[in-house]
Design goal:
Layout lengths: L5 H17 L2 H15 L4 H81 L3 H21 L2 H38 L3 H36 L7 E3 L1 H19 L6 E5 L7 E3 L1 H26 L17 E9 L2 E8 L6 H4 L19 H11 L3 E7 L13 E9 L2
Parallel strand pairs: 2-4
Antiparallel strand pairs: 1-3, 4-5, 5-7, 6-7
Length: 415
């Protein structure tokens, strides 16, 4: 019967059942193949049945092998990810080490400055009656300097401000390395058009690296300005002319960056103020910073009012005119300088923070948070003070343009 293949069928059937019980796909595949071959001529229906079993076992066996391969690939990817994380951790540790070194340098400079100032105080004790007012001003400046040099503030501020542009520089550098390798391959193949396109990408990335490098450089310069000892000397200065000069300079500087921007400038200078004794370059730096902040505030509000969704609010866009007002006024033995804008104002919860080092309300890359802090130090060194009055735009269309904005008031002694 069946060309005397009864024993083959018998044992193959047993093997198939055992393979199915044990879920051994290899045994199932071989037994089903043997049975299909044996029944092919005598019973095609059974042959097809066993052939189906053979095909299913073969597919399952192939899928299991493929699954193992995928698991091996996934394991390799996890290993590579671990290596990348290990490399990033090492880079981060190097950065922290660098920041700590920089911090130690600045702390050393600050200690030397304290030692020198304390020595000067001891020498000035013999002339206490004459130097009393100057001593109070110096003490107030030292207190503010100690706050700025606080270990926690400097560590967090330096790490945050410098790490951001450095990350951009590192990332674009890595991308450029890959692009240059790709460009070499394209050039070796004679694909000059593709190579030129890659070269353009490299140039664009280099411009970004340069931009973020300058950002880091500006941050370092700002910190150096905080730590250096001011060597400027006071001299008689026309404060009205100085205020007007820096106002025009700030406006033209913003116009050079954005020619579409326009603002109304209002001035009201008190002609009774004679020349006063100040360090003109330092007061000019303070004024330039306040002007830039004022123009930035009105420019941001102008952009907000130009948004398509805001243009539908009963023609309110046309009613807003960016305006910056500057005035001076004599008050007995003092004089004031007011810089006022009609922007969106500063939320009250942030007013107490705006003079802190590295605090800024501007987006990343548009401010280091050192301008107002440095201005505060300069005014205190002159024996003056800065006041802030602000009203936040509440978003109500009925109140639009009614007194929103910020006013900085500088109070300085005459003489």
């Amino acid at each position: 019967m069946l060309n005397r293949s009864d024993s083959a069928i018998y044992y193959a059937t047993i093997a198939l059942k055992n393979g199915q019980v044990q879920k051994n796909l290899t045994i199932i595949q071989e037994a089903a193949k043997l049975l299909a071959t044996t029944f092919q001529k005598v019973d095609p229906a059974k042959a097809n049945t066993y052939l189906s079993i053979y095909a299913a076992a073969k597919d399952s066996l192939y899928n299991n092998q493929k699954l193992k391969q995928l698991e091996a690939i996934k394991l390799n990817q996890q290993k590579n990810q671990f290596e990348v994380e290990k490399s990033e951790t090492a880079a981060r540790n190097r950065l922290i080490g660098f920041v700590l070194i920089v911090l130690l340098v600045f702390v050393s400079i600050f200690v030397v400055m304290l030692w020198r100032n304390n020595r000067f105080k001891q020498l000035a004790n013999t002339k206490l009656e004459v130097a009393y007012e100057n001593l109070k001003s110096t003490q107030a400046q030292l207190i503010q300097s100690e706050k700025m040099a606080s270990l926690g503030e400097l560590t967090a501020g330096i790490a945050h401000e410098i790490q951001n542009p450095l990350n951009f520089v590192n990332n674009f550098s890595e991308v450029n390395k890959e692009l240059l390798v790709e460009m070499k391959n394209e050039m070796s193949k004679g694909n000059l058009a593709d190579a030129e396109e890659i070269a353009n990408d490299v140039i664009a990335n280099e411009e970004k690296i340069n931009h973020h490098g300058k950002r880091a450089n500006n941050i370092v310069k700002g910190m150096l300005q905080h730590s250096r000892t001011n060597k400027g000397e006071k001299e008689p200065t026309d404060i009205n002319a100085l205020a007007d000069e820096y106002l025009r300079l700030a406006y033209q500087g913003l116009r050079a960056k954005d020619q579409t921007f326009n603002a109304t400038i209002k001035t009201d200078f008190d002609a009774s103020i004679e020349k006063i004794s100040i360090i003109p370059q330092d007061i000019g730096r303070v004024l330039l910073n306040l002007y830039n902040n004022a123009f930035y505030a009105v420019a941001e509000k102008k952009r907000a009012t130009d948004l398509e969704g805001f243009q539908n609010l009963q023609g309110l866009v046309a009613t807003y005119q960016p305006t910056v007002s500057v005035s001076t006024k004599r008050i007995v033995d003092k004089f004031s300088i007011s810089v006022k804008d009609n922007g969106n104002g500063i939320p009250q919860k942030l007013v107490d923070k705006i003079f802190q080092p590295f605090f800024t309300t501007k987006p990343t890359g548009q401010g280091t948070g050192l301008g107002l802090s440095l201005s505060y130090d300069i005014i205190k060194a002159h024996g003056g003070e800065i006041k802030v009055e602000t009203k936040v735009d509440d978003g109500n269309p009925d109140n639009f343009g009614k007194g929103e904005g910020t006013e900085f008031i500088l109070l300085l002694p005459i003489g």
